[in-house]
Fold each of these.
Amino acid sequence: MEYGSITAAAGKYGAKILYNERIAKYTSFNIGGECDVIVFPNSAECIAEIVSLCRKDGIKYYIFGRCTNVLISDDGLRGVVVMIDGDFSSVRREGNCLICDAGASMTKICTEAKNEGLSGLEFAYGIPGSAGGCLYMNAGAFGGEMKDVVKYCDYLDTDGNIKRMENAKMQLSYRHSVFCGSGKVILSICYELTEGDKDQIAAKMNEIMTKRRDKQPLEYPSAGSTFKRPEGYFAGKLIEDSGLKGYRVGGAQVSEKHCGFVINRENAAFADVKKIIQDIKDRVLDDSGVELECELLVIE
């Protein structure tokens, strides 16, 4: 496969581009093989042109944010990986709203909200993903979700046009949005917040981060909660009740701190994580009759 047009477009915008690079170092799981091309776009226009060229030239492409909710094969990916991360991550205030590029991290956005005395995003402090990724899956924690604070977003449609979508049309539900599997690319997000006391906002953020550290295995690479919450149950408790706390397959392990997390305990391979996920699903179904649904995007 020739990538001359992609190279030229990246150069035109001054965007970073890498060839034959292992993607593991860019994922929260620290798993993933060599990719043909990884582009780190630095503007909406750059994203639009790269995606347009891939479509025109028949090049397979992948859109990722901070890769905190994906499991990527050790075989790597053929084609172009468009990594929307820190190179496209500006945050600015307009009234009581924050307008954020899709690559901005939630930690950066929450910190900026606190500094501006804007409340509403405290629940998201410590979520490891990017603004785009969190909206894509309607990320949530501690009683809040993206659907509660997002006013609108700008996105690239399947014809290459940049458009705006209001919250009401996003079909935001548990770990789902209209963007899932649609081919649309989220470019920026507007969060509508309320004025608050900076000290109270900071205190709430610190309280939430303390809970995360106490309850979640943040000391190990993972992709966060491995399974969606089954209606009427908690995935972690079902897994623990099935006797799988600490269960290992190769370098992958069910966290002893929180059974809802599969962690990369020691140089886990893609196959290790895939098998442990399947083993968990099989055991929980046998023991409780509940079918767990994986929350991760598995790409191979």
Amino acid sequence: MSVDTPNPGNYDNRTAFAEELIALAENDERIVAVCNDSVGSSNLTGFRERFPERLINVGIAEQNMVGVGAGLADRGLIPFVCAAGPFLTGRALEQVKADVAYSGHNVILCGMSPGMAYGELGPTHHSVEDFSWLRALPGLDIVVPADREQTRRAVRDAVADPRPTYIRVGRHKVPDVTQESTPWERGRMQVLREGNDLTLIGTGTLVSRALQAADMLAADGVSVRVLNASWIAPFDEDAVVRAATETGGIVVAEEANVAGGLGAAVASVVAQLPASRARVRLLGLRDFAPTGSTDFLLEHFGLTAQGYVDAAREVLGHA
């Protein structure tokens, strides 16, 4: 049974992020924004116009940017530190580790345009290693909203209960897959569709594709469970255990490198189960990407509804 019906339109989650941030900042003077000369690409133009004294542009200096955010958090403010995902998590990884995670400063790190959203700009601008790097840091939440509603919830949560957090704010347009009534709890996956034969797990841009794949497989009589991994850390091991013990296999897809990412987290849980025979297939990147649009690259790496279906049939064929 499907919990929610996806909206047929496609949307840029950065818009929902900016709207929610401005709305919350109207009533909470602790909210500030810090960016690395990325006001436009971080969709902070409206925030700057409304609160010019509460936006700090440090220029192209990502390490300094995270340090400034930590300092602001130390003084009781709630800084949303915004930059393109690859530069925030790559150039400033030491500061994310030492100044945010280790020090416990309540900085909200916003990785804008993550995954392969920058398309033709190539691997230097692709943020596909962020899960692998950041999952290794204790004390850092990793949140990956699947649509507009979850993006708004992630921003609201960050203000209501500030903690060291990394939010992947998607740029590649996706449909709505959840509603306001869809459960949302820190560290928990959402069951968007119930099923007993197989489990598909997706995160971010790939959740809607998992739902499409479930429809395609249902036409062949396959009962498919779809899980939305909106939290990479804390990680919902219980949902994985249930999938491994209640269904015949698991297919995981992420717009990220499979080394150390969501798929690795799932595989690690399944491997430690004493009697599980669930087969696991991981879809994601294993190499640098070629040149092409985001849609081309997702197709190239099999990060599509058909990619899910092909992997699912392989798993079911060996069950």
